[in-house]
Design brief:
Blueprint lengths: L9 E2 L26 E3 L4 E2 L8 E8 L5 E7 L4 E6 L5 E5 L12 E7 L2 E6 L4 E6 L4 E6 L6 E10 L2 E8 L20 E8 L5 E9 L11 E7 L4 E6 L7 E5 L5 E6 L7 E9 L5 E8 L5 E6 L5 E6 L9 E4 L10 E6 L3 E6 H8 L8
Parallel strand pairs: 2-23
Antiparallel strand pairs: 1-24, 3-26, 4-5, 5-6, 6-7, 8-9, 9-10, 10-11, 12-13, 13-14, 14-15, 16-17, 17-18, 18-19, 20-21, 21-22, 22-23, 24-25, 25-26
Keywords: Signal
Protein name: Phytase
Length: 365
């Protein structure tokens, strides 16, 4: 099993989505004019639509023959869908509905590290580990999770991954009834995976965290993404009744009080990607889940100050995104991939994005 993956080559987020009852006109998918601050960056492709899948989260994996797979979770069909990242062609689907190893129940988050694929399953209440390219199940962990959605991981030290999973359990059958504040201290769950010399991952639970103050509690959580260079974890709170925001935590689980504040998004903040241009500079790209066009908001990697926004000509209602900064045959300066309306994937050339927003040229080296 390949474990090493260059940190600057591919920083991937798997973001997930809950069902969507209307909370405001923006959240309900009402047609809104393209915000004046959003420039248009045409998609390089939009894949063929498959309405049955209900695609959610994305991750990329470079194959041994030089290609790149784009792996998507399909919540409605309980499987993973594999696309060719350069063309958008669907290559295969993996898995089926069930509780056994290699099966899924409403898979949501997906994350790739080396040849290790992590998939969070909301209705199986676990994170399943699989090896690539064969998608062989290596077991699962987190069986005490109640409603896992997004996940992100990083190599804390050689042979050890730290894994963060959002646990968006709700109070009773109503998925929008947030539990009492005192229960929200477990919104993010932490795990450690030790990679044995034989390649077998060995997971352990190491705690949970989440702020519980009325103004900053994590109420409805899905997407999260970390930046080890700045000891930062951004967690999206999608509860529009209290103001959507990206809350900032340290990797140890301490709430800093910072982040991207309420009022920065018109709808729910969904997929989050880190574009690491150098060891400590770059940008965050966050999907503002709007119709008729998703707005991708760009923030400075270090200060979190806004650095512009863009949308495509088609892409809407985005859940997950995946940023692949390493060059590919079609995208020599890297690509941003995004889910389009639950039924397709879209690709943006990072060179197009950088030029449209006048971003740091170091990102394109």
């Amino acid at each position: 099993m390949r474990i090493a993956l260059p940190f600057l080559a591919a920083l991937v987020l798997a973001a997930c989505a809950t069902p969507r009852p209307p909370a405001t006109p923006a959240a309900s998918g009402a047609a809104l004019a393209r915000p004046a601050e959003a420039v248009t960056v045409p998609e390089r492709y939009v894949s063929q639509e498959n309405p049955d899948d209900e695609l959610d989260s994305l991750a990329t994996w470079p194959t041994e023959d030089g290609a790149v797979w784009l792996i998507a979770t399909a919540k409605n069909t309980h499987e993973l869908v594999v696309f060719d990242a350069d063309s958008g062609e669907q290559l295969r689907s993996v898995g089926q509905r069930g509780t056994a190893d290699g099966q899924f129940l409403r898979p949501n988050g997906v994350f790739v590290y080396g040849d290790l694929l992590l998939v969070s399953e909301r209705d199986n209440r676990r994170v399943q580990m699989l090896s690539l390219p064969g998608f062989r199940s290596l077991g699962s962990f987190g069986q005490d999770l109640r409603s896992p959605y997004g996940l992100w991981a990083y190599e804390a030290r050689p042979g050890e991954l730290q894994v963060y999973v959002t646990d968006s359990f709700m109070d009773g059958a109503d998925f929008r009834t947030v539990p009492p504040l005192e229960q929200l201290g477990q919104r993010v769950r932490r795990f450690r995976i030790d990679i044995a010399p034989d390649g077998q991952p060995r997971p352990d639970a190491i705690g949970a965290f989440g702020d519980t103050a009325p103004d900053t509690a994590l109420r409805i959580v899905e997407s999260l993404m970390g930046d080890p260079a700045h000891d930062r974890l951004l967690v999206a709170d999608e509860d529009m009744r209290h103001g959507t925001a990206l809350r900032e935590y340290t990797l140890g689980g301490h709430f800093t009080g910072g982040g991207v504040p309420p009022g920065s998004f018109l709808a729910e903040p969904e997929g989050i990607a880190l574009w690491a241009c150098t060891a400590d500079t770059g940008y965050w790209i966050v999907a503002d889940q709007l119709r008729p066009f998703t707005v991708f908001r760009v923030f400075d990697r270090e200060s979190l100050a806004p650095r512009g926004a863009f949308s495509g000509q088609v892409t809407a209602w985005t859940d997950g995104v995946a940023l692949h900064a390493a060059p590919t045959a079609r995208f020599p300066q890297g690509a941003l991939f995004a889910v389009h309306s639950d039924r397709a994937v879209a690709a943006f050339d990072l060179g197009d994005v950088a030029r449209a927003l006048d971003l740091d040229p170091a990102c394109l080296q």
